[in-house]
Structure formats: C-alpha cells, structure tokens
C-alpha cells in the first residue's frame, strides 16, 4: 500500500470522526426556541446578585453622542452656563425632590412615590425624573403656571426612532442619553394625561415596548403626538462630566439624568450611601447634592420604592433612592452621556429658597403647608 495514501486515509477518517463528535455533542436544531440569547458584553456583565437584565436598558453609542454634542452651540455645562460657577458662593446642600413632593401633592392631593419600569426603558425614566423635578422647581419658583408629570413612553419611543432619524427602533430594549437629549430638545415632552388618541395617565410597559419600535405615539399616530410634544420643548440640555458640574447644576434647580455602567448594592450604609458593586448598563437621575465631610449626589432609581433598604438622610429622601460618593459620581459622569435639563433660555443661576431647598430636616406637617398654592405668573407656560 502506498504510505502517502494510507496516511491520507487515516487523516480523512480522523476528520470524519471529529466532525461526527461535533454534530453529536454540540449542534442543535436551529429553531428560535433553542437559540440561546446573546450574552451581554463583559464590560456590563452584572454580578449574580444584581437585578435582572430586563431592568436595564442603557446602550451607549459614543460616536452618535459625539455627533450630537458637535451640534450643540455650547455643549458642556461650563460653556452653556458659566454663571452657575461664577455666582456660586459657599456650597449648600440642596434637595430638589422637595419641589416634586410639593407639586405632586398640590396636583393630585397625595404624596409622590417613585414608579417601576417594566422593560429596559430606564433612559426614559431617568430623563422623565429629571424633567419632572426641573418643571416642579419652575412651578415652585413661580416660573410656570402648572405642573404635570412626564410620560416615559414618549421619551422612550422618541429617543429610539425620531431622535435617530429611523423608521423603526426594533423590538429589543434600550436607548442612550444623547438620544433622549436630542428628543426633548428637538421635539419636547408629552405628559401623563389623556390625549385624544391615547390615555397616558398611567405607565404601560406594553406601550413602551410598542413605541420603542414605532416611535412616539405608536404605529398609527402619524405624527400627532410629535406635534403635541413640540408645544412643550425642553429648551436646553448640557453635558455634565463630573461632580462639581453636577453639583452646580443641581444647586440652581437642574437635575442630571445619568447614564453609566456603574452598579451598586441594595443596602444603604449609615449615611444613606449605597456602596458601588458590579456593572449596570443603566440610567438614573441625580436630584440632590450634599457637601461637608462626605460629599455626594442623591441618585433616584426607577425600580419602585422597595428595591433598596437602609438608613436615609435626610429623613424625607425618596424611597428607592441612594447617595453616591463624589469619586463614584466622577466615574459615572466621565462616560460623557449625562446631561442636565432646563426649560429656561439657557441655564440661569437661581438662588433657591434655603428655608425649603437647603434645610436638611423638614417635619411632615410643614409639607402640608408647603403644598398650598403659590402665586404664579400666568404669562409663563409649562416648559416654556
């Protein structure tokens, strides 16, 4: 027998044997039900104790974010609002959520409570919280004639379709900060109230999923809610990249929806801070600032009031929120996809009422008095 031929036969036999092992041991019918879902990037792989991936939804797109920033005349908050840094004197602790408490109590006659997202639409929740609180600040200062909570489904659909200039957003979940910023700036806000074509009084995860594919208003809206949104634009957005910038923005009434991959534990420490842990591709909102020996920002999540436990400071801080230490804030904002929001022309410095905004402790009976109607300037519109 030819030795070369014999070696060739042995090689072919071994190859056939290996192929059969692969077929038997690894291959399965390629039906949709048997295909394993794609694993997330190792950079955002949550730890075993982290919440399920369904509650996340931040999908960074750095190139698209850079293009959006190039379109802004003054992209960074230091460029857009130098007065926030020049006018600031000694730093004060500021708690913007108190404006939301006051506005909600006056509007609905009951205390505000954080909601819970049902799909990976966290970006819309973080941005809705930012808009809700900023509009409540405007209302409390007499710069807006009314206050209404924002519909998250609109921000979600608009950020996935209209803001990106696509016909469909697809059925997978997620968005990113600059897309939400482009939506609220170029279009605007839709509120939690009945409209002729849809009742948005309550949140619907199913509606969010649908609008995430078809855009603001859903499949058969034909741009009607887009036109409604244009009546209530968020006039300015500005990039926030570190603790000092966020603290200056919050001190004048501008919350910061924050998009990052930073994760946390579900137990606050004695000072109300949640230790960093794991990776969350997630969007939340910074809504208060504290200085002193342990500076930090208060982060409002969108997983309902009970996902986190532990001590709070001050006592009236929202359920479902936690403080974040300054170095961790810097890490989160360094991703350059977090913005502050303003319904004003620009970001004017506002000397907030320290008896309401800066006081650490406010007894419950004081909130009832604070919820009494103020005198407003009717010439201003909501989100002017």
Describe the structure.
The structure is a single chain. This protein has 384 residues and is an alpha+beta fold. The protein has one domain (54-370): Cathepsin B, Chain A. The chain has 14 helices and 7 strands. The protein has helices at residues 3-25, 62-71, 77-80, 83-86, 97-108, 122-140, 152-160, 177-186, 205-214, 224-229, 243-251, 326-333, 354-357, 364-370; strands at 94-95, 236-239, 256-264, 276-290, 296-300, 321-325, 339-342. The strands form 2 sheets. Strands 1, 3, 4, 5 and 6 form a 5-stranded antiparallel β-sheet that branches. A hairpin with a 5-residue loop joins strand 4 (276-290) and strand 5. Helix 2 (62-71) packs parallel to helix 8, helix 5 (97-108) packs across helix 6 (122-140) and helix 7 (152-160) crosses helix 8. The model is unreliable at 1-46 and 357-384 (pLDDT under 50).
> Would you tell me the structural class of the helices and strands?
alpha+beta
| CATH level-4 homologous superfamily | Cysteine proteinases
Number of domains: 1
Overall morphology: globular
Low-confidence stretches: 1-46, 357-384
Major beta sheet summary: 5 strands, antiparallel
Rounded radius of gyration (Å)? 24 Å
Q: State the share of residues found in helices, binned by percent.
A: 25-40%
Straight-line distance between termini: 92 Å
What's a concise summary of this model?
The protein is an alpha+beta fold and 384 residues long.
């Amino acid at each position: 027998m030819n030795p070369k031929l014999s070696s060739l036969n042995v090689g072919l036999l071994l190859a056939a044997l290996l192929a059969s092992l692969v077929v038997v041991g690894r291959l399965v019918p390629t039906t949709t039900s048997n295909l394993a879902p794609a694993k997330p990037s190792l950079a955002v792989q949550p730890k075993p104790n982290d919440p399920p991936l369904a509650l996340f939804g931040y999908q960074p797109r750095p190139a698209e974010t850079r293009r959006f920033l190039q379109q802004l005349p003054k992209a960074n908050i230091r460029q857009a609002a130098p007065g926030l840094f020049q006018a600031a004197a000694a730093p004060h602790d500021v708690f913007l959520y108190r404006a939301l408490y006051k506005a909600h109590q006056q509007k609905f006659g009951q205390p505000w409570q954080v909601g819970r997202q049902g799909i990976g639409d966290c970006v819309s929740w973080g941005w809705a919280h930012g808009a809700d609180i900023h509009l409540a600040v405007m209302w409390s200062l007499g710069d807006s004639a009314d206050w209404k909570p924002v519909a998250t489904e609109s921000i979600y659909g608009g950020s996935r379709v209209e803001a990106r200039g696509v016909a469909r957003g697809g059925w997978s979940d997620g968005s990113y900060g600059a897309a939400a910023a482009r939506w609220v700036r170029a279009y605007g806000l839709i509120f939690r109230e009945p409209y002729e074509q849809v009742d948005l009084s309550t949140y619907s995860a199913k509606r969010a999923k649908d609008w995430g594919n078809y855009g603001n208003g859903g499949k058969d809206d034909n741009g009607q809610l887009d036109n409604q949104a244009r009546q209530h634009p968020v006039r300015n957005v500005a990039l926030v990249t570190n603790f000092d910038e966020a603290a200056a923005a919050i001190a004048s009434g501008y919350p910061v929806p924050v998009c990052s991959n930073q994760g946390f534990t579900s137990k606050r420490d004695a000072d109300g801070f949640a230790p960093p842990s794991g990776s969350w591709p997630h969007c939340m909102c910074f809504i208060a600032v504290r200085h002193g020996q342990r500076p930090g920002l208060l982060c409002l999540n969108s997983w309902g009031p009970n996902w986190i436990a532990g001590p709070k400071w001050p006592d009236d801080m929202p359920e479902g929120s936690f403080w974040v230490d300054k170095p961790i804030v810097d890490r989160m904002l360094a991703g350059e996809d977090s913005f502050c929001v303003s319904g004003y022309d620009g970001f004017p410095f506002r000397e907030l009422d320290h008896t309401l905004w800066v006081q650490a402790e406010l007894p419950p009976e004081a909130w009832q008095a604070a919820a009494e109607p103020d005198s407003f300037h009717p010439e201003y519109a909501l989100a002017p």
